[in-house]
Amino acid sequence: MANGRWSVGLCSCVNDLSTCCLTCFLPCVTFGRIAEAVDDGHSSCGANCCIYGLLMGAQLQWLYSCTYRKKMRSKFGLESEPCADCCVHFLCEPCALCQEHAELQNRGLVPFKGKFVNFARKSKII
After folding, report:
1. Is 6 a member of any domain?
2. What InterPro entries is this protein classified in (predicted)?
């Protein structure tokens, strides 16, 4: 994961069916969890969920979510693939959200708590 490559592909949504279903029916919740984790718990899952939901009414949620993809890539040194962040979110928002959620989990970040967890020792690192 340190080589700048994503640990999961963009079309790997079905690898985690619970996240896939949540994202299909309530993408605002998945996004809120991602945003809270990327912000290291400094922003609220609920607040980000509400902003995303409001933007969904105007079909502009992808503009908001692509900014968090960019933050996440910067934070972890990930490549911009398969194309620019906004293109990924505009063309396939559910897949992008599932990929980001899975990436955070694979890096030991609990996407709904915004905290790192060492699963091997089962202790929190804050």
Report:
1. no
2. PLAC_motif_containing (IPR006461)
